Every structure is written in structure tokens, then in C-alpha cells.
């Protein structure tokens, strides 16, 4: 096996949680509000269906093909040629998805703090740090999630706790004024973000207790949805319908904090704390891409390709979009369908083919037993 390290099911849940939520808490409130308006807090609830479904599918596939990842059992299910094609499509998507995550990170840092720093410098610096973590292996990424995530969550909860005097619950009323349709339209982005739980496939083979994969996978999806709902409600209570004009509402919310006229302007703390979560997210994406590529190429180790893959990530991050405005627009239009096509439809195709193949195999065995002996 290429990866010798092991992580606990709890660490897997944390890695997947931060992989989905780290950028979602920045962008989801704004993207949801474009369609759902004041019902934006309902959208992640509808989006949770994709998350729970994909966790069930990935665990089911792993039970049929233990110790294998999606890249490996694609060849077993579909045959070598077609399996290689599906694996390549998924890995190319993962490269693009990882590049988008790096670009989202750099866009936030540049537009909020490092205004004059070239984009390539921001992306290159975080890519180099992540490469060091990825070279250390899965256990390093798991321990980073275990250490950094509680710090990140504590500070994000504190933001809205300190803003309680400024929150107006009436901003969420009337609920579903225009029916269910707006919130369902707004759920397209959460569906796409939560479909990233298909990446569990790269972590399940390395769990210390594989029997708890389903339990902690479901718990991770549930925690992700609760976080999105909490962030959407917090921003709705603070900004009202003007949230449709604020690309980074969590960051702007931190600027509102003023306690006793001496504890204020804490947005720099928010950035530094978010960087910790962003580092874990980007390292996880990076690791899964490197691991999957080495399995597709049937390499004996993934470490020689860590830096070359990092170079590709930097290039694709620069090429992925021309501006922040274009990226935000695509998040609410084409990007979710692109994510769902790869991360939901491919696993559904694989599980259907695996079940058909398994049933066919069982049928042949049954007929063989019934065949009279000479």
C-alpha cells in the first residue's frame, strides 16, 4: 500500500468537515442569498441530501472493494480501459477542484488583506507549505485537523456571540414568503459543496477502525450542514437582505465587533485563524490528488510527484478564473452542476455497476451449483 499511515474515523470526519466548510463559510452565505434571499438558511438543509447520499455510496463501495479507493475499484468495476478513463476524469476534476480551492483562498487573502501582493505569490507560498505537510503523509494532515479545527471553530462562534446585541432575528421573517422554490434553487451550491464527501474514498482505506466510517461520515455531513445553517442565520440576522451585496459576510461581520470601545477591528485575527482552517483544507485536497494520481499511475510512492503536482495546482489556480466576480458568479450557476456531475453521478454509476456485477457473479455461482454433475 502506498500510504503507510493511519488515521482515526474521528480524524477522517474532521478532515472532510474542514475540506467542505473552510471555504463554504466564506462564500455560501453570499451565493445562497442570490437565489434564496432571506430563506438562505434553509438551502443547506436541502443540500444535505447529497452529502448523506454520497457518504452511503462511498461506504457501500468500500465494503464491496475493501482497501481500495475510487481510482482503484473503477478499473475493477468497469474494466481496465474504461476504468482508467473514469479515473482520469475524476483526477482531472480533482486537480481543477483543488486549484479552485487554492484560488478561493488567495482571492480572500488578496481582497481582504494583501491588496498589492501578486496572486501567484500567495498561491505559491501556501502551496509550498501544503506540499511539506502532504510529503509528511496522511497522519500529518489528520493531526493538523485535530489541532487547528477547534481553534478555528471557537473563533467563528465567538464572532457571532460578540455580535449578539447587533443581531436582529426579525430579518428572517416572513419564512418562505415565496414558497419552497427560492430556497431549493439556493441549495444548488450546498449540494455541490457537500458532494465533495466523495473524497472520503481516499481516506477510508487508512482508518484504524473501518467499521465506524459510516457513523463518522454521517456525523461530519451533519456538522457541515449545521455550520452552514449557523453561518447563514448569523449573517442574515446581522445584514438582512443586504447580504446579497457582501461577498465575504463573515469577514465583514468581524468588523462590526466592538466591545467596550477597546476590543474592535478583529478582522485581522479572523484572517489569521481562517488561514489555519484553509491550510488543512488545501493540504487535504492536495494529498488526495497526489495519492489518487500515484494510484492511477501505479507508482510505489506518491512522494516523488508532490512538487510536480503542486506546480500544476498553481498553474490551474491562475487559469481557473479571471477575477473574483467571475468566480462568485460561476459558484451560483455552472460550477455546482459541474461538481455534481463528477462527484455524485460517477459514484452513482460505479455503485450501480458494482451491484449489477455482484448480482451477476452470484447468479453464475448459483447456476454452477445447480448444474447436474456427470
TrEMBL record:
Superkingdom of the source species: Bacteria
Transmembrane residue ranges: 12-33, 45-65, 77-95, 115-134, 146-164, 216-239, 269-293, 305-325, 337-356
Any Gene Ontology CC annotation: membrane
Gene Ontology biological process: spore germination
Entry's localization field: Membrane
Chief location bin: membrane
InterPro entries named among the record's database cross-references: Spore_GerAB
Membrane topology, as annotated: Multi-pass membrane protein
Keywords: Germination, Membrane, Transmembrane, Transmembrane helix, Transport
Protein family (similarity comment): Belongs to the amino acid-polyamine-organocation (APC) superfamily. Spore germination protein (SGP) (TC 2.A.3.9) family.
Protein name: Spore germination protein
Organism name: Neobacillus massiliamazoniensis
Amino acid at each position: 500500500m502506498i500510504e503507510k499511515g493511519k488515521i482515526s474515523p474521528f480524524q477522517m470526519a474532521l478532515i472532510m468537515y474542514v475540506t467542505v466548510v473552510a471555504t463554504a463559510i466564506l462564500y455560501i452565505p453570499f451565493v445562497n442569498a442570490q437565489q434564496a434571499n432571506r430563506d438562505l438558511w434553509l438551502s443547506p438543509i436541502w443540500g444535505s441530501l447529497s452529502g448523506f447520499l454520497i457518504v452511503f455510496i462511498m461506504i457501500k463501495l468500500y465494503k464491496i472493494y475493501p482497501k481500495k479507493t475510487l481510482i482503484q475499484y473503477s478499473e475493477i468495476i468497469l474494466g481496465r480501459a474504461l476504468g482508467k478513463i473514469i479515473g482520469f476524469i475524476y483526477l482531472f476534476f480533482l486537480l481543477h477542484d483543488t486549484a479552485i480551492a487554492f484560488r478561493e483562498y488567495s482571492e480572500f487573502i488578496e481582497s481582504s488583506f494583501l491588496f498589492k501582493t501578486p496572486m501567484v505569490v500567495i498561491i505559491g507560498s501556501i502551496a509550498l507549505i501544503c506540499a511539506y505537510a502532504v510529503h509528511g503523509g496522511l497522519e500529518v494532515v489528520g493531526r493538523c485537523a485535530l489541532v487547528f479545527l477547534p481553534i478555528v471553530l471557537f473563533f467563528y462562534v465567538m464572532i457571532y456571540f460578540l455580535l449578539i446585541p447587533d443581531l436582529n432575528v426579525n430579518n428572517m421573517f416572513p419564512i418562505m414568503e415565496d414558497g419552497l422554490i427560492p430556497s431549493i434553487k439556493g441549495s444548488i451550491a450546498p449540494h455541490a459543496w457537500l458532494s465533495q464527501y466523495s473524497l472520503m474514498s481516499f481516506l477510508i482505506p487508512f482508518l484504524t477502525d473501518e467499521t465506524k466510517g459510516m457513523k463518522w461520515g454521517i456525523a461530519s455531513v451533519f456538522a457541515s450542514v449545521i455550520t452552514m445553517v449557523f453561518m447563514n442565520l448569523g449573517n442574515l440576522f446581522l445584514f438582512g437582505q443586504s447580504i446579497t451585496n457582501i461577498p465575504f459576510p463573515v469577514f465583514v461581520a468581524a468588523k462590526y465587533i466592538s466591545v467596550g470601545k477597546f476590543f474592535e477591528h478583529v478582522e485581522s485575527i479572523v484572517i489569521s485563524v481562517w488561514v489555519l482552517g484553509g491550510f488543512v483544507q488545501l493540504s487535504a485536497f492536495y494529498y488526495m490528488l497526489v495519492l489518487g494520481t500515484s494510484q492511477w499511475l501505479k507508482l510505489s510512492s506518491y512522494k516523488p510527484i508532490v512538487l510536480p503536482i503542486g506546480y500544476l495546482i498553481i498553474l490551474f489556480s491562475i487559469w481557473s478564473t479571471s477575477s473574483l466576480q467571475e468566480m462568485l458568479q460561476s459558484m451560483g450557476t455552472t460550477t455546482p452542476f459541474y461538481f455534481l456531475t463528477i462527484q455524485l453521478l460517477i459514484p452513482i454509476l460505479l455503485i450501480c455497476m458494482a451491484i449489477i456485477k455482484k448480482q451477476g457473479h452470484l447468479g453464475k455461482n448459483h447456476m454452477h451449483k445447480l448444474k447436474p454433475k456427470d
